[in-house]
Amino acid sequence: MTLRYLTIPVTAFQQNCSLVWCDETMDAAVIDPGGDLPRLKEAAQKRGLTLKAIWLTHAHIDHAGGTGQLAREQHLPIIGPHPGDQFWIDGLAKQSQMFGFPPAESFTPTRWLADGDTVSIGRQTLNVRHCPGHTPGHVVFHSPAIERAFVGDVLFAGSIGRTDLPGGDQDTLIASIQQRLWPMGDATVFIPGHGPESSFGVERRSNPYVGER
């Protein structure tokens, strides 16, 4: 019995949406359904998964754009992000126009998340860390059991999230990485919101923005 995941890049922004599931119950959550919903539903169906929830790291359009529609169509609860991202949720329609995305349906999270919370799918539980800086309400999902963390746009392989959008702050972001992510352990592999996976150990040693060289 373990947690499995599949990363599916969606939208023109190639955002890493992840299907995560318990291989005993085959219940699944979708992390950051930014768009391309038919692809996500097909991938779940192909693997015999039952979608049970949507988990959001933050509410930028490429991560949250498909949330309202998917929740409505599949009758799914929306879990996260932290309340600090309320203004991004309120502005989804404007974000859609600004970045040329299909109109995003508005939504209200079923459950907001806070630092230290947990989320569960099937018989698997992940820890929630609040990691502001890219957005004020950004959260990260960590599975110690499989040494994986779904970090949205906090950290990338060789880079960090942008901080020039409303609510962003670089000092806050760096503190989030150093105080919340590094303690998860060097061996932990992270799935970023864009681009390839890496490990916290590799980034802690060599990332030009937060490395300890």
From TrEMBL:
It comes from the Bacteria. The keyword DNA repair does not apply. InterPro entries: MBL_Glyoxalase_II (IPR051453), Metallo-B-lactamas (IPR001279), RibonucZ/Hydroxyglut_hydro (IPR036866). Residues 14-194 form the Metallo-beta-lactamase domain. Residues 202-213 have a biased composition (Basic and acidic residues). Keywords: Hydrolase, Metal-binding, Zinc. Its cofactor is Zn(2+). Residues 193-213 are annotated as: Disordered. PANTHER family: HYDROXYACYLGLUTATHIONE HYDROLASE GLOC. This is MBL fold metallo-hydrolase. It comes from Roseateles oligotrophus.
